[in-house]
Design brief:
Rhopdopsin 7-helix transmembrane proteins; 169 residues; globular; photoreceptor activity; Arc/bac/fun_rhodopsins; photoreceptor protein; transmembrane helix; 78% helix; mainly alpha; transmembrane
Length: 169
């Protein structure tokens, strides 16, 4: 069991949700709710991994997966509604980031289920590789799209003059 995976997710996934929430213009309350659901999902996933009783293990996996479905719904419905009034660049970036989260995060519970903590249909190396690929796409891909976004980088407008340039005029 790689408990460090869960520690990593507990710190990194809220940052992804904060980024997409700020991009969408979501309220602090909505961002906080989504981060809270995220933390609950991760902790119940960790409990599923640590639990030795098989029935309890799958019960906590189910609870964690339900939390994930609710999180993804909240991301689509609430944040999607919030960003609908934004400019095209912001909406386009939001949609790309949202889709990365939807696709990659939906695979995580399946990876757990087929991995060594679940049904053990794949070995430890296969499981580790799958989680590594998911993490790279979910985090590095997300960051790359976000940083290349015109919505984040000022919409492609001219750079604002520095204080020295303004004083020289």
């Amino acid at each position: 069991m790689y408990w460090a995976r869960y520690a990593d997710w507990l710190f990194t996934t809220p940052l992804l949700l904060l980024d997409i929430g700020l991009l969408a213009g979501a309220s602090q309350r909505d961002i906080g709710a989504l981060v809270g659901i995220d933390a609950f999902m991760i902790v119940t996933g960790l409990v599923a991994t640590l639990t030795k009783v098989v029935v309890a293990r799958y019960a906590f996996w189910t609870i964690s997966t339900i939390a994930m479905v609710f999180l993804l719904y909240y991301l689509v419905a609430v944040f999607g509604e919030t960003v609908s009034d934004a400019d095209e660049d912001t909406r386009s970036t939001f949609n790309a980031l949202r889709n990365i989260i939807l696709v990659t995060w939906a695979i995580y519970p399946v990876a757990w289920l087929v991995g060594t903590e679940g049904l053990a249909l794949t070995g430890l190396y296969g499981e580790t590789l799958l989680f590594m690929i998911l993490d790279l796409v979910a985090k590095v891909g997300f960051g790359f799209i976000l940083l290349r976004s015109r919505a984040i980088m000022g919409g492609g407008s001219e750079p604002t003059p520095s204080a020295q340039e303004t004083a020289a005029d």
